[in-house]
Design goal:
Largest sheet: none
Number of domains: 1
Structural class: mainly alpha
Order of helices and strands: HHH
Mean pLDDT: 77
Number of strands: 0
Strand content: under 5%
């Protein structure tokens, strides 16, 4: 297991230790709503050429997908509203 996967598993363990019911949360389709993944060098948000970039890439992204959009228009709408909420 690489560092990113270990980091993700560690955070998942801490979260579920504090709130054990998290492992049971599911969306309307019955799919678990919380999972972990380690992306390692596959999804950097900054270059690894500098220490600041390497620090930024050591991160945990939390994503909760409770409803999967069923049509392309819904997917575009969610992307637009998510972007606006960040502004």
């Amino acid at each position: 297991m690489d560092h990113s996967a270990k980091r993700a598993a560690s955070i998942y363990g801490l979260m579920t230790q504090q709130e054990p019911d998290l492992v049971f949360y599911a969306n309307r389709q019955g799919q678990l709503g919380l999972s972990v993944a380690g992306y390692g060098e596959g999804r950097p948000i900054q270059t690894n050429d500098a220490l600041s970039g390497r620090d930024a890439n050591r991160r945990i992204d939390l994503r909760f997908i409770m409803v999967v959009p069923s049509i392309e228009a819904d997917i575009r709408w969610h992307c637009i509203t998510d972007t606006l909420s960040l502004i």
